[in-house]
Design goal:
179 residues, elongated, two-stranded antiparallel sheet, mainly alpha, 73% helix
């Protein structure tokens, strides 16, 4: 099994923490945006509302999977909640989110490259070292590099889809406002 070094884990964890900071605000923001659109702008377009709901749920799923990955690394996830701004212009909010989705996509790609470039064969512990618990013969890591790469690739694909959904949502919202 190929694994990754502790240095690579720390670098990937740092990038994952950046991703969480980029995406976390909209985990809470999508439901607020949906509420704003339905309550204040009286928009009932099912497609845009479903897209925004899906984006929020996907972001929450990413958060959860990143949290589990960080726990596997033994490195705590760091994130903070900020005061969420009042929604005045949903198109402005979505444009800002579009930039964040693009940034998250780049961060996932950087993390994936780090894992690929740091792959190394895990050294299984021999019988003697297992019996006597010799520290120097222990594996540095038992994290599967392929599993981490798969997760990051999946998130990259999701981010590409998110970018398209946000772009579609902006276009739909602009068209609905013209009516």
């Amino acid at each position: 099994m190929d694994t990754i070094s502790m240095d690579a884990m720390k670098a990937v964890a740092n990038l994952c923490n950046q991703i969480v900071l980029v995406e976390y605000e909209m985990i809470l923001g999508y439901p607020r945006l949906i509420d704003h659109l339905t309550q204040f702008e009286k928009i009932k377009d099912k497609e845009i509302l479903d897209n925004l709901d899906r984006l929020g749920k996907d972001s929450l799923g990413h958060f959860s999977r990143i949290d589990r990955l960080m726990a596997q690394f033994g490195i705590p996830m760091k994130w903070t909640t900020n005061l969420l701004p009042r929604i005045v212009d949903p198109i402005h909010v979505l444009n800002a989110q579009l930039n964040k989705e693009r940034e998250a996509l780049e961060l996932y790609e950087t993390a994936r490259k780090i894992v690929i470039n740091s792959k190394k064969e895990a050294k299984p512990r021999g019988l003697i070292s297992r019996l006597f618990g010799r520290e120097k013969d222990k594996e540095e890591s038992v994290i599967s590099a392929d599993e981490v790469i798969f997760l990051l690739e999946r998130h990259k694909q999701d981010e590409g889809r998110h970018i398209r959904l946000v772009e579609d949502s902006i276009a739909t919202l602009k068209a609905l406002r013209k009516k």
